[in-house]
Amino acid sequence: MNAELDYLLKRATRGVMSRREFVGRASALGVSAAMANTMLASAARAQEPVKGGVLRAGVAGGESTNSLDPALAASDVPFMINRTWGETLVDVDANGAVEMRVAEEVSSNADATEWKFKIRAGVEYHGGGTVTAEDVVATLKRHTDEKSQSGALGIVQGISEMSFEGDMVTLKLAAGNADLPFLMADYHLVIQPGGGVANPADGNGTGAYKVVSNEPGVRAVFERFANYWDSSRGHADSVEVLSINDNTARTAAIQSGQVHLISRVDPKIVELLKGNTDIAIERAAGPGHYVFIMHCDKAPFDNNDLRMALKMAVNRQEMVDKILGGFGSPGNDFPINSAYPMFDSSIPQREYDAAAAAEFYKKSGHDGSPIVLQVAPGAFPGAVDAANLFAASANAAGIPLQIKLEPDDGYWSNVWNVAPFCASYWGGRPVQDQMYTTAYLSTADWNDTKFKDAKFDELLVAARGELDVAKRTAMYSEMANILRDTGGLICPMFNDWVEGRRAEVGGWVADPQGTLMNGTALSKCWLTA
Amino acid sequence: MHPILKLVVQRIALGLALLLAVSLVIFLGTEALPGDTAQAILGQSATPEALANLREKLGLNLPAHERYLNWLWAALHGDLGVALTNGVDIAQSIGQRLGNTLFLASCAAVISVPLAIGLGLVAARYNGRWPDKLISGITLTTISLPEFVAAYFVIYLLTQVFPLFQPVAMVFPGMGFWEKLQAVALPVIVLVMVVLAHMMRMTRAAILNVMQSAYIETAELKGLSPMQVIWRHALPNSIAPILSVVILNLAYLVVGVVVVEVVFSYNALGQYLVDHVTKRDLPVVQAVGLIFAGVYIALNILADVISIVANPRLRHPK
């Protein structure tokens, strides 16, 4: 094979060059398209995991106040670190299905009120000993204790009774929940010896890598755990998580090869990085979304015609193009997209329609006084620009939308959930039930649109206990439509995960569930060179 | 008692009183921040019970003066306590990070101080001619750049265009000396750019000031070369103002470089302090604030003493 073809093939298998581009370039060298495709397929098969090396990730969102206690994790760096040394009962895989980890089987009774998890035998802790059903129950109990300050408190509160017998853990729920396994995949619920009650922050878990050193907000160093149970993970000899909060430094670090993977690539510089043959830009359409939220119980937003007028006055595609640099998709005024199981893709996409917006506005009988949207730069990346685009398109429809700029400091306590109309974001949840329960149920603490609809609540509870997928999908579709047409949520866009990978990193899979392959990139990827 | 010794003792006593005042100001400052520690740690998901539990655990329900005195008493006994946010021992974390801060500051100082004074001498020697204009132009340009812009420029130039160094400047225990030097090269370059002009301009101005004196004319008439005149006769008599500016810049290198730390992800005290201020972690803020204040006060005392010792008129007051 000639050298240039060989070079192209390498680039294509590493994902730096697209298949189409490879076939085109290969045909310029006199290779038929069919031949080129065959070559590519056999080269891809040769992409077997390679053992060894030091794999480093530069991750944004770490502070020197971080801890190894999984209950306290809130930002991306502790998330990534905990996912590398610890494991949960189950994971949600890249396709949105439940993947067995510490548990090897899960089953429930007919009305989803009682769940049984069979604990995998021979899963070892780094510090010695194997996982027992008792550890699992102790772990869950710790997270239900208010004193643990766990971020998963709201998730485990629905469990009314926990017990174990042999290798079987039984969880009884106050009300049926067909999504319980998804909830057990929450990244706070890392299984620890004795539930982590004695030493919550000792970093002793069952993951593919064990902690060698950890300097909060700076770096965590891991080495491969020799007795790890799953041979499909843990390829590099050691891995490191570097906390690099500055965008420019993080980008420069991957360009210079100091790290192999980075989180949060700024969409504005993606075009500039495309010329770099050493780096591939990876994207995954996740459940995270940027929103403008109206309080349905406060004037003037208590008028659904006015809410509809504002919803029709957003130019969604423009925001995706300009705010996300194309790395995202338009939202449809309900918080669910194709990243969720049982998403109804047949609901029509809402488009910018100045005439319809003007009509709704007229119908609402609003007195013409300014409608104030409060926004801070930190509400979401590009929030102020997005608010300006919104104001421009709304003003074009004759709606007197005005922007009030707020400071970042104190935004989440003084403006969000307080002001009647402001900008915000949601990171999304693995399942629809959890997203709706967190923020759209009448009684939810974080009901930041003050949306109260009896029919919606009823459907939500019914869907939770419904094990028939077709019926459940129909219920979620109906809820989505209620929210879309009467809710206080304006959801202009879903943001993709945009991340950087050096070409020598193999094993990357786009995973919409979380940053850097839902925190498993260091455990699943390998270095080819 | 020798008047200089007396002066030093006086200054140190004054410095300690100042430190105490600073600790009170820091305490009142953190008290004045909106929201309390428990709320800042637990975040939006906090329930009233969890907040109450945590407040009790952290001793936040005691009156403010009692908390301050408790802290002061422990601190005087060398116990800085543990961070409220993650329970890590403060003295231990600070020890390592203070070492990193001092390492970066000394590397920058070792390069910038001789360079600034040397350039100042050259600029004074060629006053008003092209070397003077060139030196002033370049150093004024680098000081006029905001630190983060200078940092990005250096990252671009020395990691992308000429890939000589690494953009992330973290240092860890167990790294060799050369490895550490290599790691901090970029932040050192930026800091040198930032502090150079101030010291250089002061050296130049102080020397030019002295050059007006009659004894310099005598030295010139003796037939000494211009550089000899500056070195033997002008510099010793302008050392006091130069040193005080040098020391101010050294203090800045220790306490004022948080922006540079952030850009290069350098794990030193500034970043550590900022992280804990956002979480209202009072014991850490107190401890780091005191260290910064201590460094500043100590270096200022040093500057005072040196300028008095260097000046015969101050040394022998009538």
Question: Which secondary structure elements does this structure contain, and how are they paired or packed?
Answer:
The complex is a heterodimer of chains A (529) and B (318).
Chain A: H1 3-13, H2 19-28, H3 33-45, E1 54-59, H4 76-85, E2 90-92, E3 98-100, E4 103-108, E5 114-119, H5 133-144, H6 153-156, E6 159-165, E7 168-173, H7 180-184, E8 209-215, E9 219-224, E10 238-243, H8 247-255, E11 261-262, H9 270-274, E12 279-294, H10 304-312, H11 316-323, E13 328-330, H12 354-364, E14 371-375, H13 383-396, E15 401-405, H14 411-414, E16 421-426, H15 432-439, H16 454-464, H17 469-486, E17 489-502, E18 505-506, H18 515-518, H19 521-524, E19 526-527
Parallel strand pairs in A: 1-10, 1-11, 14-15
Antiparallel strand pairs in A: 2-3, 4-5, 5-7, 6-7, 8-9, 9-10, 11-17, 12-16, 12-17, 13-17, 18-19
Chain B: H1 3-32, H2 37-42, H3 48-58, H4 64-76, H5 90-125, H6 130-144, H7 147-161, H8 177-211, H9 214-222, H10 226-237, H11 239-255, H12 258-263, H13 269-278, H14 282-310, H15 312-315
Helix pairs in contact in B: 1-14, 5-6, 5-8, 5-10, 5-11, 6-8, 7-8, 8-10, 8-11, 9-10, 11-14, 13-14
Assembly of the depicted chains? heterodimer
* Biggest beta sheet attributes of chain B: none
Number of helices of chain A: 19
Instruction: Tell me the distance between the termini of chain B.
Output: 16 Å
Structural class of chain A: alpha+beta
The SS-based structural class of chain B is mainly alpha
Got a strand count of chain A? 19
Biggest beta-sheet profile of chain A: 9 strands, mixed
User: What is the helix content of chain A?
Assistant: 25-40%
Distance between the termini of chain A: 21 Å
- List unreliable stretches of 5+ residues of chain B: none
Largest interface, with Cβ-Cβ < 8 Å? A-B, 41 and 43 residues
**Roughly how many Å is the radius of gyration of chain B?**
24 Å
Q: Unreliable segments of chain A (pLDDT under 50, ≥5 consecutive)? A: none
User: Overall 3D geometry of chain B?
Assistant: globular
